[in-house]
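Structure representation:
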Amino acid sequence: MMRSTMNEADGTFASRKSERFSALKNFFSSIFIYRSFRILLSAIFLWSGISKLMDPNYFAFIIDGYGLLPNPLTMPAAIVFSIIEVLAGLGLLVDIRGSLAVVTGLLASFMVILSYGIWLGLDVDCGCFGPEDPESEAFYGLRSALFRDIVMMFGIFYLYFWRYRQNVVPKHLTNLFKKFKKNEEML
């Protein structure tokens, strides 16, 4: 008699565990969660890129602090990286094919640069969000920026995994232009 009660209890526990796993799986399979992660990452990259474009001299100064580029290339690099961040953020916002790959590449390169700065023991601002970066005043450290980038990379992995599991392919940029052209013709 005791044994059957234990099996029933085990069965109940197993079914509850299965229900929790199913609920968690449904939560992360939700289009709402996918879009929320995508919009959040997009907003971060847009904010970062726009704030750097507002004061490219500051970002060039930060790039120079890492000592990775010759002085004449720091300003063009500051402007180009900022523009790429903004374009990738916009592409991610409207789910354009390739934008997540660009965001992944940017974030990976930022992580490599931050790791390099930590390895050298540099005491510089990460330059992540321009001159008005609250992180630069609060932490002024590269380790916290690297940790934040690692968390964002997990978000990117989730987006890739969701696309794979749901068999979703982002829009081609040419299709988006065709759609706008078609709307103009209708007016």
